[in-house]
Fold each of these.
Amino acid sequence: MTLFDDLGEDVSLRRAPRRVVSLVPCLTEAVEATVPGAIVGATDYCTHPSDLDVARVGGSKYPKLDRVLELEPDLVLANSEENRPEDVERLRANGFPVWVMEAPATVPHALASLRRILTQALDAPEPDWLVEAEELWRETPPVHARAVVPVWRKPWVILGRDTFGGDVLRRLGVSIVYSSYEERYPRPSLDELRSWFADGAADLLVLPDEPYLFTDDDGPEAFPGVRYVLVSGRYLTWYGPSLVAGRRSLAELVGRLA
């Protein structure tokens, strides 16, 4: 059968895949939670489920493609933001189907895309966690905080427009001040970042623990006197089963700041 991934590319499958290589950590977790045992290869950053024991194929940006080919997957899962087009093309040129998920801009976008991967590409029943996540994240409460959300430093990289993490926060009542900027991940100066708080346009600094590991001692010191919260990067930026536990954890954490 021939399906089409999020970018409109053909994905030809002879049968429901049972040897899947995932180049995206959150997709690894979603597939393994829904079709246990289907994942045979994953990146070094695929840390969930914590007991996943499969071949490792390097990082998302620079996977060891020869290792992927050796695993002879029925399907490779990639992401338009995390994986390089040239790597996707090489895998396809070697005869392996690749499903590229478009980097989601919203929680509903992510869940709809996951539903297609799981129920169409993998021919699995709709998982309960996906239905629960849709219900948990359906509402958007009034804004009670305006945040700057760094995801990296040296240089500073900030959540901007049309980002999944930004929509997660929006559905918790937290708006991000860079949401109207042209870039999805602006790289402003530290002086510019501080000016948001000095002018009263921002009142919260949100610091995740991935991809950069912000801590109480690494990040807040650059913003003296600014209210901040440390959050799980997995709960903020992964789309999959973590959205269920993440909704409760983040809501409780952010709710204390309201």
Amino acid sequence: MSPHPSTLDDHLRADVETLWRYHHLDHEPRRTDVGVGLGSHDLGVADHTADLYHAGRFPLVVFTGANAPTTVDLFPRGEAVHFGEHARARGVPAAAIRLETRATNTGENITFTRRLLADLDVRSVTLVSRPYQQRRAYATCRKLWPEVDVVCAAKPQTLDEHLHTIGDDDRVINMLVGDTQRIILYAERGFAIPQPFPADVHNALQRLIAAGFTKRLV
């Protein structure tokens, strides 16, 4: 049993779990040239980036992100700024952190970070994101920064643990639905490389949309 039980309705749980598992890539951890913490409403991204830095996974950290409607109240000075401050409070040296403060979507996170690091010979990156952003971050990076080796990472959490941490089931499910839709849509629009999209994921997505989780749909 999870130590953090959720109030998630039983009739939604199977479909939400299906999407949750789909976005986990389970990449093998390895050392890379830089760790890129993707801005969001989840401060756990900054925590996990700091943990990986201290574990020796990369010598340099970039936090990237301005604000989205879901973060402007939480991080009024911008996601990257707040994440950088949090990482420094966790012991990451200021000299090991760079901030990219203009990006407002994942494509810009990748593009602007690539420009920020143009003075370095970056051959590999660890993308640190929300647990359910991993697949979209990977697909976007492979399209927009194809020459680098990409490893995706997220704070190890069960679905219930993540729901407990965020404290808003509706927000998490809407974000999951939105990120899943973007896997197909952004590949079709040329923003990301195509990803496998199994039938059970498609069916779970459609049922959750029909249940009203449409706030993050494109």
Amino acid sequence: MVRTAQRSERGPRSSVWLEGKARRGGRGGGQPSGLDRERITEVTVRLLDAEGLDKFFMRRLAAELNVTAMSVYWYVDTKDDLLELALDAAFGEPALPDPAADEDWRDQLRALAREYRALLVRHSWLSPLVGRFLNIGPNALSFSEVIQRVVRKTGLPAHELTGAISAVFQFVYGNGTIEGHFLARVASTGLTPDEYHRHAMTEVTRSPDASEVIGESARIMEARGGDTVEEMMERDFAFALDLLVAGIEAMVARSRD
């Protein structure tokens, strides 16, 4: 309660990266031995992957580390601080292209989009945190910098760059979020994605209100091709990404005209 009162007196919390707390080690002398912030963050990511954001609590983390909850508070002030650290740790995973390399911007943009999609699918807890925090940790900033430099290579005017970034990466955010949540739900049933899809399509067509729409969706999916759920998702993602790249090319040509 004291911690909450002190925070409210100085205004809303901004970011762990702006409040002098994203340092190595704990708050000073006397912190528990055998722990460091990197290890705590690593275990946090592992728990979030295994149990989800809703089931993540400091006591559960402490039990996994085999320490008391107060021991964890030597290294972070709140659970939000720890979630923000975990968020940035995840953003250190994608393989980033070198914008200075002699490589076509289209290939580099596609590579970045695929890495971001894979990150969101791999860590289904990540997407809610992207909007909750400022996301200005070192890994997130590196990711953003590479995106900006690659999109600059397109030849778009400066005032259109943010729109292009939004079009591509907000699409990827939505696509990866939905895919990650879908796969998490499938895993909870014990079915494979293909089994779940067949079962869901069979069930929903029993509803008179849904059968016509679902039937049309099934015909569209059949025309699209793909024998498995993974193949269908991959084809949709690749085609949508091609549409966005083509849109950028068209806007570049229009700006030159």
